[in-house]
Fold this protein.
Amino acid sequence: MNKQAITFKSMPFNMKVAVGFISLVLLFAIAGRFIANDVPIYYSHKDWKGFPAMNKTSFLAFKQKNEDVEPDFQILPLIPYSATSIDYKHSLSKPGQDVGSRHLLGTDTFNRDVLAGIIYGSRTALLIGILSNILAVIFGLFLGSLSGYYSSVGVVTGRQNFIFLLMIEILLGYGLLYNPYVSVYIYNTQVRLLLFFILTILSVYMLLRPQRKNFRLDIDLLITKSVEIFQSVPGLLLLLGISAVTGTMDVVKLTLLVSLLRWPGITRLVRGEVIKVRQSQFIESAKSLGVTDWRVIAKHILPNITRQIIVAFAFGVASSILLEASLSFLGLGLPPDQVTWGMLLSQSRTNPAAWWLAIFPGLMISLLILACYTVGNYLNNRTGETSSKEEII
């Protein structure tokens, strides 16, 4: 049966609006410095020619030495402010209060343009939302595939491998994450977490190596109980506790924290889908031909659950954007010098009269989350329709 391809014309109206809005936010994230900036997009002079928006430091150094130089040609951005530009003459100005200032959506408590902040904040929202879910999907696919594929039979492994796994995990957990002597040489927390993840995968690989003296290990029970324990703690409470311990946030830390909340749900979803596909006849045929378990999972099972993962990814992006905005609203997100939608929204708490600080960032957050959920629901319905047709056939 030929599956009908998804085209923009075949989409319903609400899906077209959702895709259009996501594309607009994506445009802001990619080309934000060309839309809102306090330097020209393109500047041409006999002594300096180029794109100041891409090479701002060099351009500002040139302008400092040549203050009165007039350009031969220049292209100015639509909004003459960047997210960090400070207008000392307009503090908490209303939208359109001073036409000459060109603050279309007003300014915040730091005298910065709100519209420029919204444009630049879209980059942070999408970056954290997409990267955190990519990490969660990678980790969830790995654990969920193992849990679902070995849910009824377990893993036949050697006792030496199991003892080796326990020793490695104890050494990794204490050495890479808590040992102060290791932190002297590997002071970057993100590097230590990455090493911990890589070495954990290697230790699991050692666990699955066949040995002569074997015993059966219920790896599905270990993974599912770990997921249940992790999901028993409220997500926002866990984020608040970890963020309070880690101190000053940056994009990498916040991305890792958000992915920490997303991987258990992805793992449970992958486990359920792998159990369904594993019972198919073509999987049994592949096993009878002597195909290894890893090849069966990678070549035959995972390609059949791609749509479900894409749906979960769309919902996860919306959830991650909301989590980042919640942390920034509570003052536990990125520092104030990095403008985010949640940080703009949090300023309305101390300035209730500044309604524009609550409406415009809140509207962007709500619309982007609604757009992601619309895309997720549409893909989910199409997946359900395809599955029903295949069952009928």
Confidence is low (pLDDT under 50) at residues 178-187, 388-393.
